[in-house]
Amino acid sequence: MKYIRQQQALRNGLFDIKHSNLLSEATRISGFPDMTSAKTQNALFVTELGKPVTAGTREIPTPGEDEVLIKVTATQLLPHDTYGRDKGLLFADHLPYVLGSNIAGTVQSSNHAYGLGTHIYGPGNPLSPVPNYSGLQEYALLTLSNSAPVPEGISDDGAATLPINAVTTFAALFHPNHLALPPPWSPEAASFDYSKETLVVIGAGSNCGRLALQFAKSVGIETVVGIASLSNARELEELGASHVIDRYLSQVELVRQVRGILGAGGVLKVLDCVSWTHELAVALVPEDEKSLVATLHRATAVADILEREGKTKAVVEFVMGAVNNWGKEDSAAFWEVVGEGCG
Ligand SMILES: NC(=O)c1ccc[n+]([C@@H]2O[C@H](COP(=O)([O-])OP(=O)(O)OC[C@H]3O[C@@H](n4cnc5c(N)ncnc54)[C@H](OP(=O)(O)O)[C@@H]3O)[C@@H](O)[C@H]2O)c1
Predict the structure, then answer these.
(1) Closest residue by CA, ligand 1 atom 17
(2) Within a 10 A sphere around the Cβ of 180, how many other Cβ atoms?
(3) Mutation to probe ligand 1, out of 18, 273, 279, 319 (largest number of atoms < 8 A from CB)
């Protein structure tokens, strides 16, 4: 089963996320003059927090080693772009800044393996002090090791919906710093029985949650409990959830139902895609066994919660997905997995 389907399937929900919504959010860059020989380019800047972006110009960045210059064809604004524009998340100290860290475009530089004009996609880098790796401008940089050709049958718009959420969610499940499942290309994967693993996804209905369900299903994890709106239950089950629990239940009831499925001591891997505090994840895991919790929002004050709840064997780690924590070979294997999933 391909866990990420191509565009035709997007509309019936088999792709990772709410595509119509996301594709409408993917900002197409068009109508600008061809500036390949120019030194400056048009860009949209956050100049003041909480205010609309403004048009301006900036230098076209020069690619360094392991970098590719692309002419941007599509970029997608993600929740962190909103938090950045409104509150300064990630780049408050670097204004004026350019939004858009899911990027697709055509290759303009030639010192690497991609041919000129190849359509590639990848995550930008909103942590960079200069916005060279941002999409709301005509030209941007991607890194060679953290980008890939746009898969056949997928448009640049479609590809631009994937990078940050895919990199982050995949790392949450498979990186040794997080839930530490063997990555599907690793030697351990061949003999690892994924079907015996269980996973709880808090916010399974989010874009990241949907990707997590698909990645989990693709390796054969059979018991995946999603906490989400029940209105999406059928779709989430198709994507990989074995059970969907109503996210609007009280925390006590959520814990009771999840434990009813996995057993009181059985909640050992939790991915929390949506919470800003992590009481629910901590309440789910057992006291007397090591458990792993990966969070997509920084886990503030989590040590206090763990101490207070007596869950000192739980390891709660924030996943920073904007940067790729895999080595070059693993990174290439990751992009292959994502590309195959789009087929
Ligand atoms: N750390 C990183 O590097 C990184 C990377 C990517 C994303 N993120 C963050 O992860 C979060 C999710 O991103 P996304 O793009 O996947 O967001 P999204 O799709 O916009 O998530 C919104 C959905 O999450 C679900 N949700 C919201 N609150 C919930 C709750 N309390 N319990 C259960 N489900 C809830 C709702 O789905 P239903 O009601 O339909 O179930 C809602 O429609 C964002 O805040 C984003 O900034 C972080």
Answers:
(1) 206
(2) 14
(3) 273
Give strand ranges (E) for 24-180. Answer: 26-28, 40-46, 54-59, 67-76, 97-98, 102-107, 119-123, 139-143, 148-149
pTM recorded for the entire structure: 0.90
Ligand 1 centroid to 280 CA: how many Å?
15
- What is the topology classification, in CATH, of domain 17-161? Quinone Oxidoreductase; Chain A, domain 1 (3.90.180)
Nearest CA to ligand 1 atom 3: 321
Rounded distance, CA 136 to CA 61, Å? 14
Question: Would you give per-residue pLDDT tens digits along the chain (343 residues)?
Answer: 344 433 222 322 222 323 333 333 445 454 444 545 569 999 999 999 999 999 999 999 999 999 999 999 999 999 999 999 999 999 999 999 999 999 999 999 997 889 999 999 999 999 999 999 999 999 999 999 999 999 999 999 999 999 999 999 999 999 999 999 999 999 999 999 999 999 999 999 999 999 999 999 999 999 999 999 999 999 999 999 999 999 999 999 999 999 999 998 999 999 999 999 999 999 999 999 999 999 999 877 898 999 999 999 999 999 998 777 788 889 999 999 999 988 7
Closest protein CA for atom 40 of ligand 1: 205
- Cα separation, 307 vs 174, in Å, equals 27
Please give all residues whose beta carbon lies within 6 A of any atom in ligand 1, as ranges.
Answer: 78-80, 164-165, 168, 202-203, 205-208, 227-229, 232, 247, 273-274, 296-297, 319-322
Q: Where are the domains of the chain?
A: 17-161, 166-318
